[in-house]
Give the backbone structure.
Amino acid sequence: MIKRLALLATLLLVGCTTPTLRGTGDLGLVIERASGEVTLVDTSRRQPYARIGGLGDLSHASVVFSRDGRYAYVFGRDGALTKIDLLEARIVKRVLQSGNAIGGSISQDGRIVVAQNYTPGGIKAFAADTLELLSEVPAEYAPGSFSKVVGLADLPGNRFAYALFEGGEIWVSDFSDPGRPQTRRYPAGSQPYDGLVTPDGRYYLAGLFGEDGVALLDTWQAEQGTRRILQNYGRGQEKLPVFKMPHLRGWSMAQGNAYLPAIGRHEVLVVSGSNWQEVGRIQVKGQPVFVMARPDGRQVWVNYAFPDNGWVEVIDSLSGKVVKTLAPGKAILHMEFTPRGEHVWLSARDDNRVVIYDTASFEKIGEFAAQAPSGIFFTSRASRTGF
């Protein structure tokens, strides 16, 4: 009997699948927008290690991470919020929380995950561990009128800033008491279409679709209200067709300046991070979509809207000049740097692959297959405000 029990215990142990031991600091995932799948990746090994399906509409998906880097929260366009365990490579829980959504964020303490919604307009807060609904803030900017919410970003103090497209306002909701959030409203301008917060969490900026300019809120001195900066942002001497509206999350801060894509022009604008005045323009190959700084700020990588979306250019932030032009593949949609910036990963949607470049030599050092890849997200975002 003892031998039989020992044999049974051995068989049970052999039958159990034990996840590969790995740290979370070099993990991430790639959105495969056409198939509703995500590919989990190891950035040290420069290769995928699992694929997870059943995530619904990922045509405009975004991802945030738990503070320990173990869990990814995927916000789908269909209103789904999915929690993924990166170590066990499985879906932990999935909730369909709205009819139409476009992104989300996680609180400073990592306890609250917030989704921003088009339908119905507003934000919803969920417990990060269970995805239990904690509270919601309807975006009712006038009696009976609800707005799409855009540009949701986390702020210090478990607060969240976001913009109301139809409402023309910036709202800041404090979730110190997750069940009873407190919200303050600030005027923004006509049709804010996206927003971002600076890396220190101080300034929230909302780009305007209905007029030129950007609305800025100093969250350290919010009682002073918003002010308008970059009055000509969106206007150009030679207006070009805008094939893809650049997201404000495509801006970057490097060496004390903000680098942002010009709308309808083949330029990257350089703006002082101290007074928010334009200090320069850099001519580039196409209409920029993402203007992303390497973590050390020495390089700024730029990708482009159609028909120039097969190119990527690298700007040296010291000289302010383009120092490298690359052709990594067809339809480069997104870029993501490894935590310390030695490599950059790029999604080549129409080639169905992800390509990896060394940022010092500009040589391609790896690639792997993925179905119509778009967003690339690494766990290093877990420690960054606004990501």
Residues 2-15 form the longest helix (14 residues).
